[in-house]
Amino acid sequence: MADHVAPPARAGDRPDITGWSCPLPLADSPTIVMGHGGGGQMSGELVEHLFRPAFGGQGELTDSAVLPVGAARVAFSTDSFVVRPLFFPGGSIGDLAVNGTVNDLAMSGAVPLALSTAFIVEEGTALAELGRVATALGAAARAAGVAVVTGDTKVVDAGHGDRVYVTTTGVGLVREGADIRPGRARPGDVVLVSGEVGRHGVAVLSCREGLAFGTTVESDTAPLHGLVAAMLDTGVDVHVLRDPTRGGLAAALNEIARTAGVGVELVERQVPVPAPVVDACALLGLDPFYVANEGLLVAFVPPEGAEQVLAAMRARPEGTAAAVIGTVVDRHPGMVVARTGLGGTRVVDLPAGEQLPRIC
């Protein structure tokens, strides 16, 4: 962009940060920090107090917007991917760019139809590396059965990027009769998870800065719209779906609890966490509940349909490790608590900042 000097900001143009509850340094500094991109409390504050007022947004914050178009309902979603490194065990930024947006559409009960993609490429990036990313993106789109129909490319000066950033936007058709959104969580709902927690974040971390954990953990990145279709085919009224990416399982459950004004109670031992993830998190002082996932969903379903939905999930390759992990209660609204193996309980709060930067 050409040099441009913005006019002096007027007092009314500045966001009012007096109601923000972010931890320092945000109270004293008007600058963005890495925690704003972590999917936790700081990300939520930024969206709620800066972006939403600026855009005049209303309604629930969901993975994708659902728009009426004639007699149909169209799901619409966009996402940017800035993962480092670009390639990691089990996937790449190209896979994430497709699967992340496809999954955001699926969390509204939509079948994805088409994607657009935009590449921001740093000057000096090897053409071979960019080609690998594009090839991975195309292969992931074909595997998901969705077309990449349009896009854009920009190049930034050397030193003003990190090789390749990718943004994808997707549209899909919402299944007739589906009403899936965070505000529909109800006391009595059963909380299901489709597989093992924490694999993506640990996979990325394992190959960053030369870290190794004695075994290879592969990312779980995968499209989930087929799994969602199987769940809806049961005829059960699925209330909520969410893919717990940035901020992990903890962030997703807290957002749902706060939106619906309900409490969530987990049974810690019932949450499937693979042993290598447990070991890596213990070594690094991380909680697996806060580690990102890219091929996992959380579902809130009425108790009378929980076993039926769980069976449908386990019959799909993406859901073989699906499990019941908790229930929705009318106590402690807006909070998530976990019953530990020792019989006590702990609060699973929304993460303040970012445990693992640049993971999606």
UniProtKB/TrEMBL annotation:
GO terms for biological process: protein maturation. It comes from the Bacteria. Belongs to the HypE family. Residues 186-332 form the PurM-like C-terminal domain. Residues 63-174 form the PurM-like N-terminal domain. This is Hydrogenase maturation protein, carbamoyl dehydratase HypE.
